[in-house]
Structure formats: structure tokens, C-alpha cells
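Bumping with the actual sequence this time:
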Amino acid sequence: MSTPDVNLLALLAYRMGAISIGHMALRHQMSWDVAPSMEVYFNGKLVIDGRATGFTNPAIESAIIHCRAILEFLGLKSSKASSTGIAERSRRTNQDDCGVENFAGLSMLTKTKALAAYPGEQLEAEAALALIFHSANKGLAHTTASFERHSGEARLLAIAFRGVPTLLVNGFYLPLNIAPPNHELTSRPRAE
């Protein structure tokens, strides 16, 4: 395959947007001592009221799943040797899996290159990316005893939510000379 089709580009843009929404939700959730109330209106009519976690939790969980999908698209996976490590894929396991290596001139992202993209310590970058795999595989896709929802890893999730779209832009869009989608949310200050 030489150039990505419109469906793949739309899916990747959607994934990046979902990560951006999850990152925004995570920033809000990290700022609260107690989750504030939330009201959802459709056409001016109140249809849902409750706690803000009714929005933030699913947005964060969705971002984790989309980060995992992008990391796998780029050629990374969780390390079998360490729950805080990542590894490189040697090949695709399913025939219908799409990866960067399917496009002319691109190859799977190496662990070294992925970690070098982070301006901080590489151990921290690896822990952030590994947390994505661990959270998606053990916390969301399965019910296991090894996943603790409030383990204090929000900072690592924030690193991953910023870093994964950057890895996709640098490892896919730029080498193919494709303008990356504008996925960052814009917001306005709200009165307290």
C-alpha cells in the first residue's frame, strides 16, 4: 500500500480526537478533590444530572483504548517481561491488522525512537506507554485483580495522552507528507 485511504485517515483522526477529549477530562478530574455535579441538556432540556465523573471516566477510558490502538498501529506492544515496559512488534498477528509498515517508506516504530521523543526521562516515558497497555488490557478489557482504578497514575496517563498523538504525527503523517488532523480541543474559560 503506498498511500492511506480516506477511511484509515478518518479513523486515525477520530482516535486522536478521542485522546484529546480524554486528556481534557483527565486534567479536569485531576484538579478536583470531589467530583462536581454535572448537568447534560439536549435542546435546552435537562436529561441527565449527576457527578462529572459520568463524563470524565468514560472519556478517559476511551482515550486509553484509542492510545493502545495507535501504539499497536505504530508497531509497539506491551512487554511480556515487565508490566512497566513496552516492546516492539516483530510482525502482525492478524491478517487484517493495519500498521505503518503497510505504507511505502514506513516501518514499525522502535522502542528507542518512541522513548526518545519524550523530553523527560525515558523510564517515565516507557512507564506512561506501558500504563496504556496495562490499563487497556487488564483494567478495561478484562476484570482482573491487578488493576486499581485509583492507583495515582494519572500523571503517567497525561504523559501518554500528550505523547501518543505526537508519535503518530511523527511516525506516520509527516513521513508521508500528509497534514495531520487538528485534534486538539479548544476551550473557553468559564466563570466560577
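The C-alpha cells above came from a reply further down the thread. The CA atoms of residues 39 and 49 lie 4 Å apart.
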